[in-house]
Amino acid sequence: MTAPEPATHISLPGLIRLQADARALKLPAARPVRSRQAGLQRSPRRGRGMAFAEVRQYQPGDDIRSIDWRVTARRQSPHTKLYEEERERPVLLLCDLGPSLFFASTGAYKQVRCAQLAGILSWLALGSGDQVGGIVFNGHELTVQRPARRKKSVLRLLDTVARQQRISRSDGESPHQPTGTRADLDTALQEARRVAHTGSRIFVISDFLNITPDTSRLLGSLARHNTVSALRVIDPLELKLPDSGHFAIAGDDGPVWFDSSNPRFQQAYAEKVRQHSEALGECFRTAGVQPASVMTSDQPALVLQTLLGPRGHIG
């Protein structure tokens, strides 16, 4: 019997089970690409270099800049160095579990979808031989884990994701209650600038409801030397209200009721959605990041299947 899908929280065992979804995406193992000549073509992967492989006897067409003069002198015949393209790279996941993500009108909470996306991408990256690290933040706490190529590192990252969900919900406070601490998106982006190595693959997983004038600048700074994707998790109710009905949403001072059949309220809400959508689109365009959307009603693995390259390759 299949376990029910998590709606409000996903545990560490649930995040570990996402290995099956990662395997289903059929990510190929990273393999070195042997090159006879170095420097003739640009690598499509920013920040990658060429690692030394071996020395062999010079052959016509080899780049003379790759001749190993010490071996040539010792053996009294031209020898050249061979290189292989470096495939290993850091993958950094920024996982937002903040107050605005404790919401869903369908499917699962946005924070569950963020956690699932982070989990699948972690297992995909580890399976490809890449280093995996992350920054997890929930409004109360921000945890940084530097990229490493070890299963233990992935498990520690996913344990942080599971634990920070519990912290946000188990302290007796409303998830909307301000804490006076800074553990928000902009702070996480600042930390990512400090942690990320040139050529990293970075995924920012958030609902991006609380962007600021600094968000675009911080994203752009990351995207200047790395490949950055913004995975936006959205609930359908955030895009369009029902035509009629009385609804309550959680607020700092308790529930806030509204009547969605009120034309003026509908118009004001639609205008707010439009303004935020335009601001967010401009933020992503200015920063030069690759945006994609995941609905709370979506299955994250199916969405990633369409976003990633052939056979689940994290491009």
UniProtKB/TrEMBL annotation:
InterPro entries in UniProt: DUF58 (IPR002881), vWFA_dom_sf (IPR036465)
Classification via SUPFAM superfamilies: vWA-like
Domain DUF58: start-end pairs: 54-278
Domain of life: Bacteria
Pfam families xref list: DUF58
Name the UniProt record assigns to this protein: DUF58 domain-containing protein
